[in-house]
Specification:
Layout: H1 21-28, H2 32-40, H3 47-60, H4 66-73, E1 78-83, H5 89-103, E2 108-113, H6 118-129, E3 135-139, H7 145-154, E4 158-161, E5 171-174, H8 177-190, E6 196-200, H9 204-221, E7 227-229, H10 235-247, E8 254-258, H11 261-273, E9 282-285, H12 291-295, E10 302-304, H13 307-322, E11 331-333, E12 337-339
Parallel strand pairs: 1-2, 1-3, 3-4, 4-5, 5-11, 6-7, 6-8, 8-9
Antiparallel strand pairs: 10-12
Helix pairs in contact: 1-2, 1-3, 5-13, 6-7, 8-9, 10-11
């Protein structure tokens, strides 16, 4: 049978306009203006009218034109969030409360992964700014010069998190990485350790923590603090770096400060494989207080940062800026806590 002989041809053309706000209004028995008013501010219509409009939306599958609303209100209702890794629990557990706080005000998160390369971050910032977000979250305070220029020129609220600076682009919510490194050095000295070493991942903040640790402990103990470095932050890297410290750097025992809990867990595995007792032959301190820190044997001494409080504070500061006001503080230091467990 030819196509022309088919008695029931199927149209594959789609309605170019889709379901309109006018159609929703007709189904709900209200005007298009009332539908628009209800979607922009539900408090402006009665609960009964709102219920009919929602039912009509559910039946028709109508999707409000967010772009049109953004052009009218000069708001996109989107907030960009740029983090080094979307799979790292440290950043994920911070983003969850950040997103929750913003969603309660009708905002959605546009999330991107930047790694630890300032130029990659700059390219991502440029791409996000082309979408006209209402605000941006950046991780860290060290950026490429053009990133700062773009953000200052865009005149959007910006919050830098997970670090501290006296010269933020706009807002800053975090803690001092150098101070956390010195806190571990103070702990090691007060606990009676005479030798120490460091294991460090490649990102700039981790290096600052370990540099502060090594300098502080080295000055107080009068000993050199060897630091082994890696570009990877996994268990295998932790094992390999402890092996390097022992086999190549002559580290015979003491406290090992690690720039992450994952690296510290790798150190615990390598120590067990070598028959070294923890904390007898070797003490281990991590960073982050991830779930594994309390679950490993022995329990991991580590630095805890209240990531939920940090995420919520960052969101609240941005919302205050978006609303045209000022947050109570431009610089919010959430601090950190050393959690002592059996590993040191």
């Amino acid at each position: 049978m030819s196509q022309s002989d088919d008695p029931t041809p199927i149209s594959r053309k789609r309605n170019p306009r889709g379901v309109t706000m006018e159609a929703v209004g007709r189904m709900a028995g209200v005007s298009q203006v009332t539908v628009s008013r209800a979607l922009s501010d539900p408090s402006k219509v009665s609960p009964e009218t709102m219920a009919r409009i929602r039912e009509a939306i559910a039946v028709t599958g109508f999707v409000p034109n967010a772009l049109a609303g953004a052009l009218a209100s000069r708001k996109s209702m989107m907030v960009s969030a740029l983090v080094p890794s979307i799979t790292n629990i440290v950043y994920a557990s911070m983003l969850a409360p950040f997103s929750e706080e913003l969603k309660s005000r009708g905002y959605q998160i546009l999330l991107s992964e930047t790694g630890f390369d300032p130029e990659e971050e700059a390219a991502t910032v440029e791409a996000h700014l082309s979408r006209r977000p209402d605000a941006i979250l950046l991780t860290g305070v060290h950026h490429a010069p053009r990133t700062r220029r773009m953000l200052l020129g865009a005149d959007v609220p910006v919050v830098e998190v997970w670090d501290m600076t006296e010269t933020p682009i706009d807002l800053c919510v975090g803690f001092s990485h150098a101070a956390s490194g010195r806190a571990v050095a103070d702990f090691a000295r007060e606990a009676g350790y005479r030798r120490a070493a460091g294991i460090c991942a490649g990102d700039e903040r981790a290096q600052r923590r370990l540099a502060a640790f090594a300098e502080s402990f080295g000055q107080s103990s009068g000993t050199e603090v060897p630091v082994a470095r890696t570009t990877r932050g996994n268990l295998a890297a932790g094992r390999a770096l402890l092996a390097e410290l022992i086999d190549e750097r002559g580290f015979t025992g003491g406290l090992v400060a690690c720039s992450s809990d994952v690296l510290a867990q790798g150190v615990l595995i390598e120590a067990a494989a070598r028959g070294l007792s923890v904390p007898g032959d070797l003490a281990v301190v991590g960073f982050g207080d991830q779930e594994l820190a309390a679950a490993v044997e022995p329990g991991l001494t580590t630095i805890r940062v209240n990531r939920e409080a940090l995420g919520r504070a960052a969101a609240q500061a941005l919302l205050a800026r978006i609303d045209g006001g000022n947050p109570s503080q431009d610089l919010i230091d959430v601090g950190f806590t050393l959690i002592r467990r059996a590993s040191a």
